């Protein structure tokens, strides 16, 4: 009886892992498609210019 209950538990748990959606692979891959932003294309933007001399003197 113990083996039967363990087998049934394994079957029930395996059914919980299945998805009932009809999403295509292309739709799922679209979720993980990242768009490059500024600097991601291998050409990072230059650093900002330094502040003028005496700008931080107060």
TrEMBL record:
Signal sequence range: 1-19
Chain residue ranges for the region called Disordered: 31-58
Extent of Pro residues compositional bias: 44-58
Keywords, ordered alphabetically: Signal
Name of the molecule in the record: Uncharacterized protein
Organism from which the protein derives: Maribacter sedimenticola
Taxonomic lineage from the root: Bacteria, Pseudomonadati, Bacteroidota, Flavobacteriia, Flavobacteriales
């Amino acid at each position: 009886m113990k083996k039967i209950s363990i087998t049934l538990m394994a079957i029930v748990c395996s059914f919980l892992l299945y998805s009932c959606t009809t999403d295509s692979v292309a739709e799922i891959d679209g979720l993980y498609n990242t768009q490059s932003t500024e600097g991601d294309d291998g050409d990072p933007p230059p650093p900002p210019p330094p502040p003028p001399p005496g700008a931080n003197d107060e």
